[in-house]
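Support reply, case 0932

Customer input (verbatim):
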Amino acid sequence: MIQTSTEAVKADRDSDPSRETAAACTPHSKAAVAIAAQTMSGQQARGVRRQAGRTHHRGRLRVLAIAAVGLSALVMTPAGAYAIGDTPVATAPTPQYVRQATTDTDPIDLPGGALGLSMVQGEAVWLYTTGLEASTTFASGLPNPGVAFVLQCYGPAIAATGTGWYVDRNLDLPDNTFTPQIRTMFRAPSSGTYTCKIRVAAYQPNSAITVPVTFHAGAILHGTPVKPASSLGVTAGFGWTVPNSGNNPQPFISPAQPTLRHEYGNYTFQSSSSPTVTIIEDQSVTTCAPGDTFAGCQGAKSGGTTVKTTLVVQPEHLNGTACGASTPLQVFTHTTTVTTALHHYPIMNTAVLNKASDLFGCPRVNVALDFTWISGQAMVVHELRPSDERPGWGGIYEH
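Our regenerated output:
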């Protein structure tokens, strides 16, 4: 039996993943799976085309069941360079910041949103944001601005552009507030000091005007150590890497190509003392709309796309053969309609599994995310990485 959770929660500055600790760590009956899912949906918008390979962005946020991350409340600390010890660190809440939306799509640092980390090569930290919120008010007839939140890390063995993850959409009345979340694992490629920052962008297509966008006070970047001695019990893990299409067209699903699988690969469990594993797979998609130039979108009409996403897990022996189940387990399935007005849509999925009862005590798992076209227009599954900013994020960790 698979148990799912779709309890609605507030999508605001106090949407803290740590609230799900009890549910995430509660033992379940055999073959039961505790799942939390976050999805975003939206309203009428006219879209602003991003540069550097990004998409038109339309939509508003709706959160269904905040992610079950299995962490207790984190300690707030001032900004600075912290060694990754056994306890978590976090930035102080950011002050309010107003940026004028112009035709410049480049992100800039959100004041107060930087977290300095002193790390040794191979050390890992689970990064996640809380309190991200952007909104605007503008006169009727002006273009609706788009906004982006970026989590970008800089430091040794990383290109000058940094490495990171982004989420974005347009703001449009009456639903002109955007409150997303970014959650991922960062592993130091070398020893040294790293700075991970919340960055923001605000943009619109009319070079003759500016539109003010407010990035509200209260954004926090959290860093939780991933190590056997972690005070929160997050003992081991790995950060997923979304496939990179590079200079090739991004993949899509359509009536002619109705299925697509993102393979995230194998993970071998490292901590015998941790009975639970959390798997997170987040991915941005876009329903093809008139005027889109993405591969697969030629001749698109209005009407949106209905898509099914399925988080798939295959328990395995160390030699790669199936263990406990002869076919992959569908531990999360969600069907949604992404409207033309919404256009750009980040889908966020979380599965919390008991190693013994849900994964049969097997030593490793193979993880994938399936996309199935159900009806409507073709849909793009984003892979391009402007400035190495990934349109998908997540990871797996033991606790």
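We compared this against your earlier run and they match. Two observations from our side: Helices lie at 21-25. The longest strand covers residues 364-376. Please reopen the case if you see a mismatch on your end.
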